[in-house]
Each structure stands twice: as C-alpha cells, then as structure tokens.
Amino acid sequence: MIIKILIGIAFIGIILSLGSALFHLVKRTEENSTKTVNALTVRITLSVLLFIFIFIAVVTGLIEPHGIGARLHNKTNQEEIKQ
User: What is the spatial distance between Cα 50 and Cα 64, in angstroms, rounded to a whole number?
Assistant: First the structure.
C-alpha cells in the first residue's frame, strides 16, 4: 500500500512541476525562462527516479505486473520450470 502512495505522490509532483513550467513559460520573462528550465529539470528527475523505483519494485517482487507484460513474464517462468 505504501508503494502505491509513493508512486501517487511522485505522479502528483511530476504534474505540479509540469504545470509550474507551463505557467512560467506563458509569462515569458528572462527570470521565468530560468524557472521554466528548473521546473522541467525537476520533472525529468522525478520521472527517472519513478521509473527506477518501479523497475526495482518489480524486480524484487514488491509489485507484481498485470496485463500484457505479466502474461509474457508468466509464460517465460513456466517454460523455465518445465526445463
């Protein structure tokens, strides 16, 4: 449950950072240009960290994928068990 909360907080942070960048981009002043770049840098950093966190959580088994990728993963595991 706490993992879902952390992922949700990261998504909210990404959206807020993107909104902040859009706000500063629309104002179009020299100072706001720097703020736009900083907000986008924060968004990219949060996105990369979220991707790494989700990858580690799936690999360690904290999160079990479901959907197309899970079906492929299950077929691979079943084939390994048969051998």
Answer: 16
| pLDDT top residue among 30 and 63 | 63
67 CA to centre of own chain: 18
Residues 6+ apart with CB under 8 A from 22: none
The three-class DSSP label of residue 28 is coil
Please, are residues 3 and 57 in contact by the beta-carbon 8 Å criterion?
Answer: yes
Token pair recorded at residue 33: 């240009």
At residue 83, the 3 state secondary structure works out as coil
For residue range 41-71, list pLDDT tens digits in order.
999 999 999 999 999 998 898 888 777 766 6
Q: Quick one: CA torsion of 9, 54, 35, 25, rounded to 10 degrees?
A: -90
Cα 73 from Cα 83, distance rounded (Å): 16
**pTM across the whole model:** 0.74
